[in-house]
Known about the structure:
The structure holds two protein chains of two kinds. Chain A contains ten helices and twelve strands. By secondary structure, chain A is α/β, with parallel strands linked by helices. Chain A folds into two domains: 31-144 and 271-298, Response regulator (Rossmann fold); 146-269 and 309-330, Response regulator (Rossmann fold), CATH 3.40.50.2300. A six-stranded parallel sheet of chain A has the order 2-1-3-4-5-11, sandwiched between helices. In chain A, β3 (103-106), α4 (112-119) and β4 (126-130) form a beta-alpha-beta unit. In chain A, α7 runs parallel beside α8 (234-243). Residues 13-37 of chain A have low confidence and may be disordered. The mean pLDDT of chain B is 89. Chain B has one domain (2-274): ABC transporter involved in vitamin B12 uptake, BtuC. Chain B is an all-alpha fold. Chain B is globular. The N and C termini of chain B lie far apart (61 Å). The interface between A and B is large, with 55 and 54 residues.
Amino acid sequence: MKNTVMTFLVSALAFCVIGCTGGTDAAPKTASNQPADQKPASGGFKVALITPGPVSDSGWNALAYDGLMAIQKGLGAEVKNDDATGTKIKDSMRSYAQDGYNLVIGHGFEYNDPEAEVAANFPKTVFVSSSGGKTGANFGAFRFALEQGFYLAGALAAEMSKTGKIAMIGGPKVPSIESTFNAFRAGAMAEKKGIQVFEEFTGKDSDIQAAKQLTEAQLAKGADVVIHQANAAAQGVFDACKEKNVWALGANLNQNDNASGVVIASAVIVAQPAFLELAKAVKAGTYKGEITTVGMDKGAIDFIVNPKLQAKIPADVLKKLEDMKAKIKSGALSVPMDKF
Amino acid sequence: MATWDSVASLLRYSSPVALAAVGETVVEVSGIINIGLEGMMLAGAYAAVVGSLQTGNPWIGVLYGVGAGIAFALVNCLVLVYLRVDQVLAGTAMNLLSLGLTSTLFRARFGQSGQLISAPEISRFAGVDVIIIGLAVLVLGLHFLIRRSGWGLALRACGEYPSAARASGYSVEMLRCSALLIGGLFGGLAGAYLSIGIAGSFAENMTSGRGFVAIALVTFGRWRTPWVLAAALLIGYAESLQYSLQGTSSIPYQFFLALPYLIALAVLVFVGKGAIAPESLGNTELEVG
């Protein structure tokens, strides 16, 4: 019995690890520090994407996958993707580099440190992470300023709330998500000083029940506008809002047409043009390792009000949002962004 | 009314784990540990969403979910009962199979980058539905069957000392298969309830370890279905507490996330001595004689 329990615990742990990191469609892993066996890029342009979770999450990872597809279509590139976290990151990066990939995109700040290490061994491959601080000749980072969209979402939430309480529901508590939440809070506070903003995390990425339960708890505390960073579990947030007939805000992708009918606006990352531009620069050989931030000014971030629900928002609020958007684009209004 | 609402929501949110745990209890009483419960739930959850979307009728979805659970149970019958494969290995394989299978099917059907699905949900009256009421009845019914019926006595013999059951003329294989099928029915139903009773949606790996919690609850509930149900409700209560307590204090949110498991551990420490596991649980050796 003792043995069974121990083996069970070990296998449960193993399953959790595999479950959290996806474990599906993984690229062949060959761990090697030898730069010598890097194949020359044989004619075709090859791009790889590494995401922290499954790309079917209708959120952060999904938009990167859409970006990768844009590269495939736009440049006729050969593309491949897998999910890798923790110690698997460097293995995955190395195997892509060895297979002659020209560009390897790691979709998250956590890919910046590993790429700095791996890039030194593979000078013919360009490594780019979504945010992060390190750069070199063949590696860098580009960051989507989703905070700008969340700032506007915060302002709208503050205006739409009747109770003076609004909530943010996150999956795992990671710096990139916290940064967007901070921007949301700042946007709400700038609009209404006394507004109460609840910040909660389920700690899990695909747990719809947890997202729903957590949202219900916030609504019970009086929150009546909710934004999320729950990716695949977002439906739980929207459902809870629908049951209590309060507004929700979409994030990452345009979720205005969600079946719940309560998504009044979405803070959106428009990833395809940014991904395509990056790939073009790498293909042309003009890419220089750098840290770039892409925001509303470059059309990479947007805040889209649901046209079907637009009538529910007072005209002066809509106008105010448009003005703020223009100010963010022109740089007259700068939105707080955490460094990580 | 507010209190009834919170009771109803506790019942609802505890049900997926409770259903799975009650089914697993029957399986464990027969001497088999179904580590693949998590995968079974996940398969049930996916099948239920597909059924509900296809027909627009959530009850057809429930049938699909139960069907998926039973399909998994049939594989279990072959692999665990007749081929006598190591139960931890086979269960782990089933979990991986289910995670891969549901994710692949999900992407094939709803696109590589996924969709936020909204499937027709089971209707509720005053916050509870037929499955919750059914759960209470089934728990008592199963308890009676296991403790008071001839089938139950034979089943318990399979879990304690299979040779004795065989010597008395029972087919250990058939008895264990019957237990596995009941477990499959409950596992599939648990997944279906999670996806179309609660979430109204599906996401890859949406069970998030609930199957493993359910297996732990069987030990926690000392292999008696009413106690297993009570344990599920206690953990469910701790979980709901966690959601309302989070953010109200300076204690890190991770502590509240761990709270249900801390309670489970504490209870196991105190009631552990009284827990009597089926003697042959997980034993794959052919019994002598």
